[in-house]
Automatic annotation (TrEMBL):
Keywords: Acyltransferase, Ribonucleoprotein, Ribosomal protein, Transferase. InterPro entries: Acyl_CoA_acyltransferase (IPR016181), Bact_Acetyltransf (IPR050832), GNAT_dom (IPR000182). Residues 1-172 form the N-acetyltransferase domain. GO terms for molecular function: acyltransferase activity, transferring groups other than amino-acyl groups. It comes from Spirosoma endophyticum. This is Ribosomal protein S18 acetylase RimI.
Length: 176
């Protein structure tokens, strides 16, 4: 397994991976297939990913097998943290997804730790992320890694408004 920064050359396979992981994570039985398709058609297109990959406020990382097949990815984005965060020197882990077939083998932890290390090296002292309130498996994963709930926000998923929890984690040691 290799984790590396994604480039615009990854746009097509990343679009395929993002589409598949979105269907696996949020499709039936969690949401109707039509709702997931609506979100994918509006938000996960190759053109949209090409734009995101060139955004200087974003950093994408891909997890790939030795044969070059992408099996996971993460996107971090610099923007204003939620008002609930006391530490304003933070970056959002906006997306972190792994193929269902790879879950439970340590790759999710490896990808998350890579993101946390990258954030620390970039000078951030904290990270935050949003997680769907009904995604108990992901919430448990984040909590095992030391994330804590700080609030919630609403997320437009296709034509449906869903609630996400905000979670945060400090990535640097705070002075005594």
């Amino acid at each position: 397994m290799t984790i590396r920064p994604a480039t615009t050359a990854d746009a097509a396979p990343l679009t395929e991976l993002a589409t598949l992981t979105m269907r696996e994570a949020f499709g039936p039985p969690h949401n109707p297939a039509e709702l997931v398709d609506e979100y994918i058609q509006s938000s996960i297109t190759q053109a949209a990913l090409e734009t995101e990959l060139t955004d200087p406020r974003s950093a994408f990382f891909v997890l790939e097998l030795p044969d070059g097949t992408l099996v996971g990815y993460a996107k971090l984005r610099r923007h204003k943290p939620p008002r609930q965060m006391a530490d304003r020197n933070a970056i959002e882990i906006q997306r972190i997804y792994l193929l269902q077939s790879q879950i439970g083998q340590g790759q999710g932890r490896m990808l998350m730790e890579y993101c946390l290390d990258w954030a620390r090296r970039q000078g951030f002292s904290a990270v935050w992320l949003g997680v769907w309130e009904r995604n108990a498996r992901a919430i448990a994963f984040y909590e095992r890694l030391g994330f804590r709930k700080i609030g919630f926000h609403y997320f437009q998923f296709g034509s449906e408004r869903q609630r996400d929890f905000w979670l945060e984690k400090t990535v640097t040691d705070r002075p005594g």
